[in-house]
Design goal:
Blueprint lengths: L13 E14 L8 E8 L3 E6 L8 E5 L4 E12 L3 E8 L16 E5 L8 H5 L2
Antiparallel strand pairs: 1-2, 1-4, 1-7, 2-3, 3-6, 4-5, 5-6
Length: 128
């Protein structure tokens, strides 16, 4: 039996989950220190990107806490934007693998690219 490819999950298609939700980010090795306020900008199955006011060194173990959920992982990259602050990209640990089923950030916008859109003629689409 031949399996039909779903264009939304085609191997050439990619998705991005842009979002906006206030979170706290803290280094796991600095217990007792105050957490930094940040904004969760993007989330994927294996990563999260937070915009905050301070830099975090690469390979640092961090905890990201929202109102109802906690994610953990390692800082993969830290990029400074002179006007906005620091974009911290965190590789999520296996126990924090993200799924929309258990945590949906506020203002989530899912973008898909790479898949060819299917188009129909007006006559076929409208039935006239």
């Amino acid at each position: 039996m031949e399996r039909r490819k779903d264009s939304m999950h085609d191997s050439k298609s990619t998705s991005r989950n842009l979002c906006s939700e206030l979170v706290f980010i803290t280094r796991k090795d600095r217990r007792g220190r105050p957490a930094m306020l940040g904004n969760l900008e993007e989330i994927g199955e294996w990563f999260a990107e937070i915009l905050t006011d301070c830099a975090f060194p690469r390979a640092t173990a961090v905890r990201i806490v929202s109102k109802d959920h906690t994610l953990e992982g390692l800082v993969e990259a830290c990029r400074r934007d002179h006007q906005l602050g620091f974009f911290i990209k965190v590789k999520l640990s296996p126990g924090s693998r993200w799924s929309e089923r258990w945590f949906t950030p506020k203002h989530l916008l899912q973008l898909w690219s790479g898949a060819s859109p299917k188009a129909s003629t007006l006559k076929a689409a409208s039935g006239y």
